[in-house]
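hi! just following up on the protien thing from before. the input was this:
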Amino acid sequence: MLQIENLGVRFGQKEIFSGMNLHVGRGEAVCLTGPSGCGKTTLLKAVMGFVTPYEGTISVNGIELSPRTVSHIRHLTAWMPQGLSLPCEWVREMVRLPFDLRVNRSSSVSEAMLLEHFEALGLDKELLDKRLHEISGGQRQRILLAITAMQEKPLIIIDEPTSALDKASTQKAIRYVQRLATEGKTILAVSHDPDFMEGCGRQITIHNS
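and the predicted 3d structure came back as:
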C-alpha cells in the first residue's frame, strides 16, 4: 500500500534523513519511533505531499507521489496530525467539518455510525452536545481518531494518537487501530508510547542523521 524508496529530506543545509526505505502492506499497522528531531513527523508530511524530498520516491497504492498525483493520493489518505485544532466551538461541528472538505465529500457519516466508533473508543454520546472547551484533551484526541477512521480511506496516517490518553483509554485506542488493520486499512503512526508501539504489528526506529 505504501512504498518509500531511498527517500531524503533536508531543510536548508540541515539533512533530516536520507536513504529512507519503508514498505507497508495493506492491513498492516506500522509505528515509527525515535528521538525528537529525527524526522518521524517529517516523513508523515512527505507521504501527504506537504514536504518535498530531494531524493527518492513515495508511492501509495502503486501511484508515485508527484505534483500531478498528490491530489489523488490525498483522496486515498486520512491524516491526523499531532495537536490538530479545528476552528469549531461545538463537538458536532468538529465531527462534521472534515466531511465538508472536497477531499472527503465521497465519505458519509451517520450518527449511528459515529456512535459505534465512539463506543469502541470509550466515548459517550453526550459529548456531541458539548463545547470543545468542555471536553478533555484525551476526549478530543479520541474523537479526532474516530473522525480520521470514518473517512474510510485505505491509508490512515496518525501522529502521536495517544499522547493525551491515560492507560485505559490508550488500550481502547490500540484495540481500535488493530480493528482498523483487520478490516484492511493500512496504518502508519508515530508514537513514543511503548504500549501503542507494541500494539502495532511492526515498529521502526528512525535515527538522527
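The first strand starts at residue 2 and ends at 11.
Strands lie at 2-11, 14-24, 29-33, 55-60, 63-64, 77-80, 155-159, 186-190, 202-205.
cheers
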